[in-house]
Design brief:
Blueprint: H1 4-8, H2 12-21, E1 55-64, H3 66-71, H4 79-82, E2 87-97, E3 103-113, E4 120-126, H5 151-157, E5 161-165, H6 183-204, E6 208-217, H7 219-234, E7 241-247, H8 253-262, H9 270-283, H10 290-293, H11 298-304, H12 314-317, H13 320-327, H14 332-340, E8 352-357, H15 366-377, E9 383-388, H16 396-409
Helix pairs in contact: 2-16, 6-7
Keywords: Hydrolase, Signal
InterPro entries: AB_hydrolase_1, AB_hydrolase_fold, Lipase_secreted
Protein name: Alpha/beta fold hydrolase
């Protein structure tokens, strides 16, 4: 575990690192990969049966000294003091299940600190939203514009082995559509990356401890809570969650849909919500044309570019038929898809802290409040709600990182 001395050196300067760490929640334009980070392999053909092991390959991307890691954050006071160990970064490929249940090859980055043989706690880091046209920011590319390159690397250098899955649709599986905000596949791709990380440790004689921590913000927060749930409910014989700290995830999809479709206010996230609808329409076999959901002329534009600009008013963008079916609770297929992605209402066992900005107008605060209320009602004793007063979706990321790191460091 990172030493208490190192943890005491954390201050608000680390918060400034967060804007590098959580770049994935923005829509910044992509940057080509660095010289030492070759593109991940293309996905192989679909397998017909599950493999006994998950790890397919590991490729060393680079070895980075403490001075190199500190140099990446040289403009941030004290950040260099957090760097404790040199790290090696690997690109892993591994088997996982696609949304249709078939095995595919996925990828991720594994950051391994050199600590002299002591067992490493394993930290699963789930990245935020990455548009497909900005794919080079996926963790396995380890390019300077990715979330794992700077602050996550500093986190690894404090003594965590960090497993950072690309998810389906990026890296080795980039020929497949990313199942955006689909809880089951985000969780399973992340869990299988953890399995591959442990297999890597056994193969390379890297001691991996029994502690498992989970972090992620925005889509990564949703993926983190889904992963926590999957690990406790279906993989407890393999892994014990030590602590998790998801941030600003859309955990209550059914309530979120009502919030959007009732709104008379401008909403800044409707282009990403179209992506959610497209994912559920496909994954759950609903298969309606986009004109069912979206008014013209935007429907025609989105058929060409799903990630294009849309109006900010829900009533202007979405068709009356779609809106009525959700608000009147008559659209059985889509309502069932939303319920399948409601991950707020269950009873976690491991310590869980839900972080969220109270003024978040991208993923409203009620998502975390509803999760906290539902979990407490089910008898959860180790769940905490950690509001970030006055923070919006982007400004809260700094406080989230600082507080989430402090939270998991207790364990």
């Amino acid at each position: 575990m990172p030493s208490r001395v190192i943890r005491r050196k954390i201050n608000f300067s680390l918060a400034r690192l967060t804007f590098l760490l959580w770049a994935g929640i923005s829509t910044a334009s992509g940057i080509s990969c660095t010289k030492d980070a070759a593109a991940p392999q293309a996905a192989t053909e679909t397998l017909t049966s599950p493999a006994e092991t998950h790890l397919v390959s590991s490729t060393l991307i680079g070895e980075y000294s403490t001075s190199q890691l500190a140099g990446r954050v040289s403009d941030i006071p004290i950040a260099g003091a957090l760097v404790r160990y040199p790290i090696r970064v690997y690109r892993l490929t591994y088997t996982t299940r696609n949304t249709d249940g078939k095995n595919i090859i996925a990828s991720g980055a594994l950051l391994v600190p050199t600590v002299g043989g002591q067992p490493l706690p394993l930290l699963s880091y789930q990245h935020g939203t990455i548009r497909p046209d900005d794919e080079s920011r996926a963790p396995s590319y380890y390019s300077p514009n990715s979330e794992v390159y700077s602050a996550v690397s500093v986190l690894a250098s404090t003594g965590y082995m960090v497993a950072a899955p690309d998810y389906i649709g990026y890296g080795a599986s980039k020929n497949l559509p990313h199942p955006y905000e689909h809880a089951a596949s985000l969780a399973s791709a992340s869990l299988d990356m953890l399995r591959a990380a442990r297999e890597f440790g056994a193969k390379e004689q890297v001691a991996v401890g029994k502690k498992n921590f989970l972090l992620g913000y925005s889509e990564g927060g949703f993926a983190t809570l889904a992963l926590h749930k999957l690990m406790e409910e279906q993989a407890s014989s393999e892994f014990t969650v030590t602590a998790s700290a998801p941030g600003a995830g859309a955990y209550h999809k059914s309530a979120f849909a009502d919030y959007i479709l009732k709104s008379d206010q401008p909403l800044s996230f409707l282009s990403t919500y179209v992506w959610v609808l497209d994912t559920y329409n496909r994954v759950y076999g609903i298969n309606r044309p986009i004109t069912y959901y979206v008014n013209q002329p935007w429907a025609a534009q989105l058929q060409t570019n799903l990630y294009g600009e849309v109006p900010s008013q829900a009533k202007e963008l979405f068709t009356p038929t779609f809106r009525q079916g959700i608000l009147d609770k008559t659209d059985a297929q889509l309502l069932a898809a939303f319920r399948d992605n409601d991950i707020h209402d269950w009873q976690p066992k491991a310590p869980l802290a839900l972080f969220h900005g109270t003024a978040d107008d991208y993923v409203p605060f009620f998502n975390s409040q509803d999760a906290y209320n539902a979990m407490k009602a089910r008898g959860a004793t180790s769940v905490e709600l950690r509001p970030i007063p006055g923070g919006n979706h982007f400004s809260s990321a700094a406080s989230y990182t600082l507080q989430a790191y402090a939270f998991i460091s207790q364990y």
